[in-house]
Amino acid sequence: MYVAYGWPKLLPIAGSQERLIHVSVSGSLLLLVSSSDVQVWSATQHRTKLGQFVRDLTSVQYEGINLHAKWSSDSRTVVVMTSGCILHFYEIYLLEKQLKLSGEEIGLRLVEVHPRSTINLPRTTTPETISSCCLTADDRSVLVGLSDGRLQLVSWSGELLGAADLLQGPATASGSLYIPETYGSPTLPVPAPLALHPSFSSPSTDSIGESGFGQLELSGSLHLLVAVLTDGYVLLCSINEKGLRQVSDIIPDKWVGITDAVCASIAHHQQILAVGCMRGTVELFNLADNALPLRTVSLFDWGYSVEDTGPVNCISFTPDNFAFSVGWQHRGLAVWSVSGCRLMCTIRQGSVSNVFSPSFSMFHGTDLSRSEPMVGGVAALAWGEQGYQLFAVEQRNVARLVEFPFAKSCVSQNVVGVAQAWQLLQGDDRVLLVQSDEEDQLKLQHLVIPQSYIGVNWPVMHVAANEDGTYLAVAGRRGVILYDMQLRKWRVFGDVTQERQVQCEGLLWIGKIVVICNYRESNKSYELSLYPRYHLDETSLLYRRQLPDKPIAMDVLQDFILVTCPPFDVNIFHVHVHGSLSPLKPTTVQLFPVRELSIMNARKPPLAMHFLPNVSGDRDPSPPCDGSCGDGFRDVVGEAILRQPTRCMLLRTDGELSLLDLEHGSERRLISGIERFWLTCGRPKEEAALIKEVPWWAYGHRGMQVWYPSSPADSTDDLQDAWELDPELDFDREVYPLGLCPDPGVIVGIAQRLSLSACAAMPCFEPTPQAQPILPCLLRHLLQRDKAEEALQLARLSCGRPHFSHSLEWLLFTVFDAAVSSQYVNKKRGKFSPTASRLLHQVCRLIRHFPEYLDVVVSVARKTDGRHWSELFEAAGRSTELFEECFLKGSYRTAACYILVIQKLEGPTISQQSAVRLLKATLEVALYELAGELCRFLLRAGREYEADKEAERNIFSAFFLGLSSPSTHVIGDDMHHATVKHILEKHAAQLMELKELHELVAFVKGTQFDFPNFLKSEKSKSARLEDFSAALRIVGEKLDLEVAEGRQDAEFLLFHMRTVGFKEWVVVLATVLRHPEMLLELFRGDGRLWEAYSKTLQSQENFLEYEDFLLTLEQDLGITREISESE
C-alpha cells in the first residue's frame, strides 16, 4: 500500500527549456532525457545533477530530436533513439570526485555522460512517414519497434543483430474479444476463433497491413513481449528463455482483446498486464490465466470522464508491483492498488467539471498548477528504487519534473493485529504512526529519523514494532536504530564500524530481544543475530545462527521464530532465555531448530507467513517470552517441540491465501485475490474467552472479508456468500485498510486529502486515518453460530467504546438489508427467508439489552424503504410501544422520529394523537424547534387525511347514485389548525404571563407562531403591563443585554410591539435598548408622558444606570422643542 504525503517537489531542471521525453530510475541514479540532452541526477536522499551531455545544434538538425530512451540494467549504458531513426549510445562513468554538503561527504559521485557510438537503423521508408517508435531492452540487447511494423534487434555494444516484419507474417495469434462497458465494468470475454485484428477478417489477407508498434514492454522473468500497436490493439509474444538473441525468437502468441490501447505496463511478480485506453480507463489482465480480464479502474466513479482527463498516456508499476501510477494526457495523475483502491489522485475532489480543465486556464490566464499538480497532463512516470518517490513529467509544461513523496506499508510486516495502539507506514526518512488521541480520534504522527543515522544509511528498509508498542526498530541500508515510544529517545549502534557490518534483510521482535536477519558481505551469507534492546553492540550479541539463504518470509509467535528460505524451506526455531535479560546480570540465549519443512509444488512462492496460535485441543499454549523466562525448567527442546505452533497462514505472490499445516505439510486454499491479511491475536482476555476461534481477516479486490478456522474451504459459491455476508467491513474505494486494532475494536484505514496553502507552490497531500468498527461483524458471526449469550457478553464488553452506538446501528442495518434482499430470491415473494428472519429477530433481541435500542431501531428505519417497515418492527416491536417508551423516558427527539413510522403502520389517527401528546410535552421542556416540526407534521397530515377522505366519499357516492357528490368544505384542516393554534396560544400566554421573554422569542422562532395576532388578542390580558418601573426591572432581568443573543431577542420583541402598537412595551424595550429616536417620537406631542417617564427613572435608585440616557433624551427633546417654537 502506498500513500502520498507532504508537498510535491518541483525539480529545478535549470538551463533546459526543451520538453522532457523520458524519466527512469536505476539504483541510485535518475535519468532525464530531453529533446537534445541527457542528464543524470542522484536518486538518493539529495536530488542533485551529477552529469549531463548536450547534443549540438548540427546533430539535432541532421539526426532529429530525441524521442525515446532506455537504460541498461547495470546503469552503465543509455540508448536514445532520435526522430531520424538513429540510435545514440552513451556511457555513464562514475568519477572519483565526491560531492559534499556543508563540508561533509554525502556519498554522491559525479558522473560523466560520454557518447560512445551511433547507429543508423536500416529503413524502407523515409523518416517523415514514421509517426512513432519505441524501445525496450533486456540484459543482452535492445529491441526497437517502428510505427511501420518493423522490429530491429541491436546489441548494447551497438551491433545490428537482425530485423523482422513481425506484423507482415501469417496471422498465427489467437485471442478473445473483451469489450468493456461504457463506465468501466468489464463484460465476460467472448471467444474469437480468429485473431482479433480487422486485417484478419478477410481470408485472403495474411498480414496486419499499415499497423505499427506504439510501445514495447518486455518481461524476462515471464518470457513475454507485449506490443501495443498504433491502431489500439495489443499483441502478446513469447520470447526465448535466455532473452532476446534473435528476432526469430519472438513468436506472436495471443491478442488481448483491447481495441483502443494507448500504453501498457507489466507487473512481473503479480503477472498482471495493465493496458491504458483512449477511454481514460485502465484494463487489468491476468497473465497467469491466459490473459483473462481482471478488472477495470477509472475515475468514472468519482465523476471524472474522459473529457476531463483525456486518454491514458502512461502507466508505471511500483518496484514491488503492489500498486501502479496512471497519468492522463490532458489532466491528472492517480495511483491505484492492484485490487482497485484509489490511493492517490492529484485532481481535487469537487473540481469535476471542465472549469478546471487545461482549456479553461488557457483562455482565462489562471495558473492552476498551484492548486492542482499535473493539471497539464502527464508525459512520463517513474518510481524510485524503493517506491518512496514518484517522478512525473508534465505534458504541457516544458521541462517540468515533479517529485511526489510516498510512504508504504510492507505486506510481510505487521501482519498480525496485536494489541498495539497504532499502525505503521514507512517513508524514506521517517515512520508514520497512526494512533488514537485522548478523545479516541485517529491521528497521524510523523516520526522523523535522526539525520545522523539516515543521512548515511538512507533509505528506510525495514520497520518493526514490539508487541506492546513501546519500542520501534528501524533499519536503513546499514545498521539498526531503536526508538523508545515512551521516553521519545533514539538508540543506535555505539560503534560506526559495527553499524556498517549490519545489512538488515529482515527485522523482528521477540520479547525484549531484537532479531535481525543480517547479510555478511565478508562471507556472503545470511544469519540471525539476536541483540538485547538495552544495548546494540557486538559485545552484547546474544546469539548468532547461520541461515541457508536469504529469507523470503519471517514471523515470530511467543518464543518461536519462523524463517522461510527459497524455494520453500520452512525453518522453525525456539528461543530460550536462561536468566534475566538485564545489563547487570549475565544472560544465556539458546536458539535451536524444532522443525524443518521443505515444500515442493508448482505454486507461487510465499510473500508473507504468520503463525496461528494453537487452539484448545491442539497443544497447550505457551506463555510469551518477555526476555526473562528464568531457569529451572527441564528438557527445553522436548517441551518446545510439544508447544510449537502447528499451523500458519500463507500469502503467495499471486494473492492466494491458504492455511499451511506445519506437521504434515498439507495446504488448504482459502481464497485468491488477496493483498493483505491480519489475525486478531492481540484481543483483550475477556473477548478471547468469548470468541474461542481467532478470526482471519483479509483484504483484496472484493474488499474486507473474515473467516474462522472451522469454516470450510472456500469454493466459488462460498466466496460469493462470504462477500455478501460481510458488508460491515466495507470501506470506500479510496480508503485502504492498514490493519486491525483489537483493543478499540476497529479496522484502521488511510485515505488521501489535499490541503491548499497560500505560501506553498503546490497543495499538500495529507494521509487521513479512518476507522471502521469490527464489532458488528463479530456479533453477527456469533449470532449465526447460535451463540447469543456470547454475543451479548461481547457487546457489553464493548459498550464503552466510542463506536458502540454506530456498531449496533450498522449491525441491524446490514442484517435487515440482507433480509430485504432475501425476499427477492425467496420463492415466496414478499416474505423474508427463514434464515434471514431468524437472524433479524436475534439481532433485535441482542440490541434490546442496551439503552441505544430505541435510537438504533428508528435510525435504521429512516435509512430504509418504508415498504419494509412492517417486517422490521415485527422483529423490533410495535412502533406505538417503542414511541411510548421514548415518551416516558423523555427522549422526545427519538419519539418524534417514530411518528412517521406510526403513521405508516398504524394509520394517521394514532400518529396525530401521538404527535399532539408529544407537542405538549416538547413545549413544556422548551424544545421549540422540535415542536415546530410537530406542528408542521400535524397540519400537513390533516390536509392529506381529509383530502383522502373527501376523495373516498366522492367515489362511494358515485357508486350508489351514479353522480359525484357536491363538494363540501373540508373541515378537518380547520380542526387540526384549531387544535395546534389552541396549544400554541395557551403556551404563549403562559410565557407572556410569566414574562419569560427569552423563551418566548425562542418559541415564536421555533414554531413560526403567529405572534402579532396573538399580541392583539392578549392586549388586555397576559400582554398587559401594569407598572412601568416593575416592567422595566423585569425586562432588564429576563433579557441579558450584555450578550448579543439578549439584545437580539429585545430587538425582536421591539419590532413586533411597534407593529401592533403596544406603546407600553415600546417604551420599556426602547429604554433597555437605549433607542432615543423611538422615545422621542412618543414624547414630542405628550409633555405629561415625558414628565412621568423622567420622574419615574429619577425617583428609583435601581435606575441610576439610565441617568446618562435620560440626560441625552432631555437634551434632544429640548432641541426639538426650540426648533418647533421657532417655527
UniProtKB/TrEMBL annotation:
It comes from the Eukaryota. InterPro entries: Ric1, RIC1_C, WD40/YVTN_repeat-like_dom_sf, WD40_rpt. It holds the Pfam family Beta-prop_RIC1_2nd. It is found in: Membrane. Residues 777-951 form the RIC1 C-terminal alpha solenoid region domain. Keywords: Membrane. It comes from Riccia fluitans. The keyword Membrane applies. One of its GO terms (cellular component) is membrane. This is RIC1 C-terminal alpha solenoid region domain-containing protein. The keyword Membrane applies.
